[in-house]
Amino acid sequence: MSTSLIYALTGIVIAGLGLFHYLSQRNILRKILAGNFIGTGIFLFLVSSAARQVDGPIDPVPHALVLTGIVVAVSATALLLALVCRYHDETGSLTFDEENDE
Amino acid sequence: MTHSSILIWPVLLPLFLGTVMFLIRGRSVLLLSLAAAVGTALTSFNVCRIVHQSSTLIHEVGGWGAPLGIVLRADGLTAVMLGLSGLVGLVISVYSLTYFKSNSRKEHLFWPIWLLLWGGLNGLFISGDIFNLYVTLELVSLGAIPLIALAGTRNAIKASLRYLLLALLGSMSYLFGVGLLYMRFGVLDLVMLGNVITPDFTAYVALALMIGGLIIKAALFPMHFWLPPAHSSAPAPVSAALSGLVVTASFYAIARLWFYAFPALELAKLSQLIGLLGCGAILWGGWQAIRQERLKTLVAYSTVSQIGYLFLVFPLCNTAVEGSGIAWSGCILFAVSHAIAKACAFLAAGVFIKVYGHDSISKLRGAGRQLPMVTLAFALAGVSLMGLPPSGGFFGKWMLLKAAFVTGQWGYGVVMVCGGLLAFCYIFRVLEQFMTAPDENAPKVKAPAVMTYSVLLLAVAAVSLGFFTPVLLSVLGVDSPVSLVSFAPEALLP
Amino acid sequence: MLFDWLSFDLLLAIALIALAVAALRARDLFKGIVIFMLFGLLVAIAWVRVHAPDLALAEAAIGSGITGALFLGALSRIERKKKSTAPARLENPVGGSTSGAWTVLLTIVLTVQLALAVLRGWGYSDGLADEALSRIDESGVINPVTAVILNFRAYDTLLEIGVLLLAALGVYAIGEGPTVRNLQRTSRSEVLETFVHLLTPMIVLTAGYLVWVGYKEPGGAFQAGALLGGAGVVLLLSGRELPVHAARPGVRIVLGGGFLVFLLAGLAVMQDRAFLEYPRASAKYIILIIELACTVSIGAILTVLFAGCANLLTTPSEEEGT
After folding, report:
1. Which one of B32, B433, C78, C187 has the largest count of C-beta atoms within 10 Å of its C-beta?
2. CA B270 to CA B488: how far, in whole Å?
3. Who contacts B244 (Cβ-Cβ below 8 Å, separation ≥6)?
4. Do B243 and B346 contact (CB within 8 A), yes or no?
């Protein structure tokens, strides 16, 4: 088993863990945190796949894709957090449950 | 090479002017926004015209070419979409000139965000690279969210938060698919991918991830639940852009991948599943639309329903069956007419809100007498949504129906007819209220002229689209993935 | 062999998964965020192991550092707000899930399918490594990742800066709530003051170095911009009144400048070439100009994003529109 394959599979496990919490958490802040774990898991897989040829050259293209992905992720996280703060200001709630809204 | 650079202007111009409009404030805003809107629309129409006259335009950004660089392409499908975004975007922009209070915080933020979003949409349509498609999708999503939040109400904040959480899941799913495809096949260019892809397990998983992610963004039933709150709580021009263009763009991305990147895969079963979801959307969306109390939520549920029709193209357009190419033409025609009619309906609802301060259907009694022009526009948009002749909606639906019969899939035909009946009910429910006599002592009201006439323009476009069907189909025929059936409107009319 | 790299990789992989679980299941969200940041640093080490030092830098700075700061800013804002209003328990570890069993099943099936897809598709294709490396001397830079980001696929990067700019615009659009409160400035400590005084010029210098070195070694505009953003966050936390309000023209120019310079550079070469097709001779300098402009903008945008999440954006004087 090669180094890159270990990390690729680790990335998938982390993305799966993130997905589970993304779907099951009700607290929105925790959802966003879980979303960041999904993203990092995918990036881990992508970066590792760049070194999939054991003695071959490192493919720079996935690296560039992940850099773009990291920037997109931080942008989306910032928007989500700003929205969540505003939502909390308005409703005092951190979940989507209506009964907690007042 | 040089002449293909016209292809990139519909992207660069709004991105550039949008940023400039962020930097510059003050009196020049009106002039600049008008220039940006007209310029973007004209450059889009220009691409449309040139594709129609010659053939597919290709622009290799950076001069590297595929597979190393990014290649932009405009074939017939892209040209139709660019023409659509040019028309709808222009009208939305003109409408917005008077919608937002001059020199307000909202106006300052609306223009740069909207222009970046518009540029992102055009970028999505011309993209010929699956990763570049991801970046443009993000540009569109991250532009749409703040525009909804700009409404500032609690509902808008909640809706945009929900929307973004789901859109993010969709994006990540799509990105994972891109990563798998690149790992397996080593290319990102759409056309090259279509040539090298082989039907193996990795390819199918990647396809499921990408299509699944995009289905969330396109709000196909049962992933539609984020759409009605988001589209109905946004400011009216934003709702029009979301329902008219943004959702259509997500569908476009699915169709582009399906017919161009994955033709080598065996997709019959998946297409039936998507077709079933489409049927669910048509019926559920239509039924919910009838039950809504507010005009904007009604229009939003109508979007849920109409999106369903678009997805019927996957089971109906079966390249193995002679004559099913008509489903492809019908679907794109339907997408275009829905986008125009839906933008029109939302903009009309915006006028009612502006004038009356609410959009509760039961309290809009008599609005037809007071605002005849806007009501007429809404009715004309309704004609297209119901699929009555001579609207584009009619021909689109007719062609989809015909494809259902040609391929022997009668069930879809029945659902389409039922969807039409539901549309009939929800549109007439609104028009009935509008047409009743207003209260004796109802105050006199007046709608802003710019807004009224821009709505009317879209309404006329939606209804008269039927007459332009042959032109539209001849543009669509440029490098089409399926052989289009030559189209004679007379043959369809009784 | 004295040191077995394979066991190191396995240990790191297990540590990553353990940290992910710990962060996601942490009772206290604050703890979860701190573990997330630690996790990011370990991911960076993993990326050094798969020969991606550029990304290790980016992950440590943006993925872990800035993202963590955004979370902490938002959390402290919410905690403060909650203290001022009714106290409501938000602690909610995994519990409260509605249809837990189904979610577990769904995620496990999905994860297994994904792992299978990776295993079955692994190692078939070389990707574009050879293509990219053979044309690297045409790109004007030596670092292959920089070549892809700023030349081969520069169009993606341009749009990505657009996404960042949109995020800043979005934070402005969302930022102004009905309850406007500025961060209560903590009393300035001597240590922090000295730290800030020393650190800020060093960070700026390092950022400049990272941009310059990015053409041949790991580094570049995003890593450097993230450093600047980090400096901005530290300055804001130390109670400095950084100009972050969109009402100021200077702020808007710094935010939008990088994107505009990138666009204009792409257009300037377009006379008889494609968009963003730099002439061979001047490619290196054009890339450097773009990177410098983008570094400043990225730094400013990341600072604004933090200010937006930590509710430092609104001034009472800012006007309200319709």
Report:
1. C78
2. 32
3. B88, B92, B339, B340, B342, B343, B346
4. yes
The residue ranges of every structural domain in chain B are 286-485
* CATH 1.20.1050.10 corresponds to the domain A3-100: no
Measure CB to CB from residue C132 to each of B15, B68, B187 and give the nearest one.
B68
Query: What is the residue whose two structure tokens read 């290196």?
Result: C284
Residues 6+ apart with CB under 8 A from B157: A83, A86, A87, A90, B149, C174
Radius of gyration over every alpha carbon of chain A, rounded to an integer in angstroms: 17
Nearest-CA distance B126 → chain C (Å): 13
Predicted complex ipTM: 0.95
Dihedral angle of Cα B122, B123, B124, B130, to the nearest 10 degrees: 160
- Sequence-distant (≥ 6) Cβ neighbours of residue C192 within 8 angstroms: C238
How far apart CA B354 and CA B369 sit, in angstroms, is: 17
| CB-based contact, B106 to chain C, within 8 Å | yes
List of chain C residues whose C-beta atoms are within 8 Å of the C-beta of residue B113: 166, 169-170, 173
Phi-psi region of B60 (alpha: psi -120 to 50; beta: other; left: phi over 0): beta
What is the separation, in whole angstroms, between the first and last Cα of chain A? Answer: 54
**Spatial contact of B239 and B231, defined as CB atoms under 8 Å apart:** yes
Q: Between C24, C52, C66, which is nearest A34 by CB?
A: C24
Tell me the one-letter amino acid at B282.
I
Q: Does B138 touch chain A (CB under 8 A)?
A: yes
Which chain B residues in 417-456 lie under 8 Å from chain C, judged by CB atoms? none
| A34: contact with C, CB 8 A cutoff | yes
Give me the tens of pLDDT residue by residue for chain B, a chain 494 residues long: 446 889 999 999 999 999 999 998 877 888 999 999 999 999 999 999 999 998 899 999 999 998 999 999 999 999 999 999 999 999 999 999 989 988 888 999 999 999 999 999 999 999 999 999 999 999 999 999 999 999 989 999 999 999 999 999 999 999 999 999 999 999 999 999 999 999 999 999 999 999 999 999 999 999 999 999 999 999 999 999 999 999 999 999 999 999 999 988 889 899 999 999 999 999 999 999 999 999 999 999 999 999 999 999 999 987 667 777 889 999 999 999 999 999 999 999 999 999 999 899 988 888 888 899 999 999 999 999 999 988 999 999 999 999 998 888 999 999 999 999 999 999 999 999 898 877 777 777 888 899 999 999 999 999 999 899 989 999 998 888 776 655 555 555 43
Chain B residue with CA closest to A65: the answer is B131
Q: Which residues of chain A have a CB within 8 Å of the CB of C21?
A: 17
Beta bridge partners of B189: B129
Rounded CA gap, B416 and B303, in Å?
A: 15
